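Entry 12.
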Amino acid sequence: MTGRALEAARVLVPTSREEAVEAFGEGSGVTVLAGGTIVMPELNYGRLKPESVLLLQKAGLSGIRRDGSRLTIGATTTVEELEQAPEPLASAARQVADHEIRGQATLGGNLCAPPGKAPRGDLQAALIALGATVRSAGKDGERTEPIEDFLAGGPDGRLLLEVEAAEPRRAGFASVRRPHAHAYTVLAVCAAESADGIRVGVTGASPRGLRARAVERALAEGSSAADAAEKVLDDAQPHDDALASAWYRRRLLPVIVRRALDDLEGGQ
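Predicted 3D structure (tokens):
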């Protein structure tokens, strides 16, 4: 079935960043394929019937580049490669699924994955905590924006090119997972401190990763980690899915935030 789906589509194989941007154009009717851990099952089951498929494996969009304390991460960099990145991104990457998936799945796919029956986008909390910016291309050309804005706007019509972030002074991570062949993450919280203060990102408490601004404000105003952690429910709207109920998430989320903040404190 996958073969028939691809035979019916126009397959584009750019060999450079510039060719990829040109081939993507305004994104209309284009399905982007990098690691394929989400797209291929959709093709296999006939739920996705693209007009054009843009294969990014040869487009030169992978790798991690360092410039002092700043990192630039290409969209097709695998999750496995991110296990060597600064915290809390490294811990978040190590928690994604299993070794097989991490070796195939990409940063871009993780950020652009549409909400599913179970939480996706495990890396989003870490990148929110790091204050990352996203470079993408689409009908209005290339643009760079904060990751929370990119996630809020949705990736439709955008080709993610790279993500840039700075290594933090210290970081914290905490999560709860449900044992499974691919070990799904129920909730994950990342905290990172930079010169601008502490940022907190959460995945599993909304369709996409969110920034826990109420927690950040409480910390900036001098609240204890325990008191600040309770504020996370001002930002999050937990929901039911195949892994856990909204009730369970509401009860557990402040606990996970507290653990991440304690981990941050332990990183001094």
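Annotation: The chain has two domains: 2-55, 64-266. The longest helix spans residues 246-266.
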